[in-house]
User: Which sequence fits this backbone?
């Protein structure tokens, strides 16, 4: 399952900020974009097939979905020792 929410936390000495960013809105937009680009993808796939490059189209789409699904449980921690700032990003 693709990640639906991203948690962004920024901490400094003076303030703390915590944002929950809904990723499902981005996935809806990217899905619509993919549907609009599908004819061009199919034309490119047919042109590559004629040239001898056999790419399994269904396997390509499954691989893209698997890569998106593997983004879950990704965490990124960045800290600065100069001004004691910390940024944490976790994809849920």
Assistant:
């Amino acid at each position: 399952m693709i990640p639906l929410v991203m948690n962004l936390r920024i901490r400094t000495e003076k303030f703390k900020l915590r944002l929950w960013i809904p990723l499902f809105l981005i996935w809806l937009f990217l899905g619509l974009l993919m549907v609009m680009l599908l004819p061009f993808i199919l034309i490119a796939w047919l042109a590559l097939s004629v040239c001898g490059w056999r790419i399994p189209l269904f396997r390509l789409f499954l691989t893209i979905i698997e890569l998106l699904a593997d983004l879950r449980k990704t965490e990124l921690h960045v800290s600065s020792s100069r001004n004691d700032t910390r940024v944490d990003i976790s994809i849920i």
